[in-house]
Specification:
With 161 residues, the chain is an alpha/beta fold. It is 47% helix and 14% strand. α1 packs across α7 and α3 packs parallel to α4.
């Protein structure tokens, strides 16, 4: 199984993704590590990325997935077209959308100073977010509770889908 842990910045993609990968005995990759330096510089300056900025990065996310027999990668994948871009490389990718109330996300962002993605970009991410559609291979998981509880919910939902 190839899994994209998706959601807005601060939803827990990296933490949950790494813990889920450990549970599955699969490799984990933080998609943020695949961003070119120009993208990181823009986000660090509080400038939202454009689609043109994202295309090469999304291709790298999809390529990484295809190189794994099973793997988990954290990637915002906020819009359907972004998820489709990943699936063009990895057609069997399953999207795991981490969801929480906006206030919860804002609080989590405030608790992680020094991250290159400033909390000021949360509104732009929420405006961009397109929830999974019925024809997409994926599930939404509530991120309330401990990491262990979230991973257990995700694991069970993936196992029984």
């Amino acid at each position: 199984m190839r899994i994209v842990v998706m959601g807005v910045s601060g939803s827990g993609k990296s933490t949950v993704g790494a813990a889920l990968a450990a549970r599955l005995g699969a490799p984990f990759r933080d998609g943020d590590d695949l961003h070119p330096q120009a993208n990181i510089a823009k986000m660090s300056a509080g400038v939202p990325l454009t689609d043109e900025d994202r295309w090469p990065w999304l291709d790298l996310v999809g390529t990484w997935l295809t190189e794994q027999p099973t793997g988990v990668i954290a990637c915002s994948a906020l819009r359907r077209v972004y998820r489709d871009r990943i699936r063009a490389q990895a057609p069997d990718a399953v999207m795991l959308h981490l969801v929480a109330p906006d206030e919860t996300i804002a609080r989590r962002q405030a608790d992680r100073p020094g991250h290159f993605m400033p909390a000021s970009l949360l509104d732009s991410q929420l405006a961009l977010l397109e929830p999974l559609e019925a024809d997409e291979q994926g599930i939404a998981v509530d991120v309330s509770g401990s990491v262990e509880e979230i991973v257990e919910r995700a694991y069970e939902a993936l196992r029984t889908r």
